[in-house]
Amino acid sequence: MSDEADVSKGDFVIEGSAKELSDHHVLCHRMGDAPFQILACHVIEDTKMFSLQLRSTSDSNVLITSLVACHMDTSTFIPDHIAFKLLGITPGGPGICHWTIPGSFGYFKKTKTNGA
């Protein structure tokens, strides 16, 4: 199984269910096309992070793990944000979830489990 697949090439299906990682996190992603790595790391309030397994429809041996960010409170987003136009919703309505870009990573607060 590979985590190196390019999700922009080919079709993938979600396998299993989403796993909530944390609602306390720092997310980092690449910025620009510089010849060196530039990272932007930030905390966004009222956002939950999930992990999903994606399997290639053309090669069943390709299984990747992807991060999904869900913005639970959009009331402070700018009203003309592209997500509102695409989804036909307004700020303060339902949450908005999206894939993170390839190469993104996060730091997550460990949550206690039963019996811990």
Automatic annotation (TrEMBL):
Source taxon at top rank: Eukaryota
Membrane-crossing residue ranges in chain numbering: none
Protein name: BURP domain-containing protein
Organism of derivation: Adiantum capillus-veneris (Maidenhair fern)
InterPro entries noted in UniProt: BURP (IPR044816), BURP_dom (IPR004873)
Signal peptide range in chain numbering: none
All residue ranges annotated as the BURP domain in the record: 1-110
